[in-house]
Amino acid sequence: MALGRKTPGPPDEQTPMPQTRVRMSALGAARCPNLAGREGVVVGAGRYRSTVRVMFDGFKSPTSLHSTYIEAVVEDGTPTQIQAR
Questions:
Q1: The pLDDT of residue 1 is above 50
Q2: First vs last Cα of the chain: how many Å apart?
Q3: How confident is the prediction for the chain on average, in pLDDT?
Q4: CA nearest to 65, candidates 48, 57, 56, 53
Q5: Cα 59 to chain center, whole Å?
Q6: pTM score > 0.85 for this model?
Q7: Nearest to 70 by CA among 49, 43, 52
Q8: What is the mean pLDDT of residues 14-20?
Q9: Strand partners, 54
Q10: Among 35, 73, 75, residue whose Cα is nearest residue 56
Q11: Residues 18-55 pLDDT 10s
């Protein structure tokens, strides 16, 4: 058994679903100041349960971040999701 790998399981309640529009949270901005104020879209789960892959606007490749570093963009009381094409 490889060290550092967790068995697959259900995602955490706070982990946003793919296609959800997100922005950096206050904690994320403090820990990653170069990403402060950025918005993007969740493209999938990360290698670990607590990470997500985010494609920030204007970036060419996704970035892995801890799920507490991002928050859903809320418009009109509901989180926004990108429509599938």
A1: no
A2: 40
A3: 82
A4: 53
A5: 14
A6: no
A7: 52
A8: 80
A9: 42, 63
A10: 35
A11: 889 999 999 999 999 999 999 999 999 999 999 999 99
What tokens does 84 get?
A: 């599938």
Q: Can you read off the two tokens belonging to residue 45?
A: 């789960």
d(CA 53, CA 1): 25
Q: What are the chain's domains?
A: 21-79 (2.30.30)
79 by DSSP, 3-state: which? strand
The token pair that represents 3 in the structure block: 């060290």
Q: How far is CA 82 from the centre of its chain?
A: 14
What separation in angstroms does the CA of 30 have from each of 43, 53, 55, 59, 71? Answer: 23, 19, 19, 20, 14
Identity of the residue numbered 83? Q
Query: Are the C-beta atoms of residues 63 and 35 closer than 8 Å to each other?
Result: yes
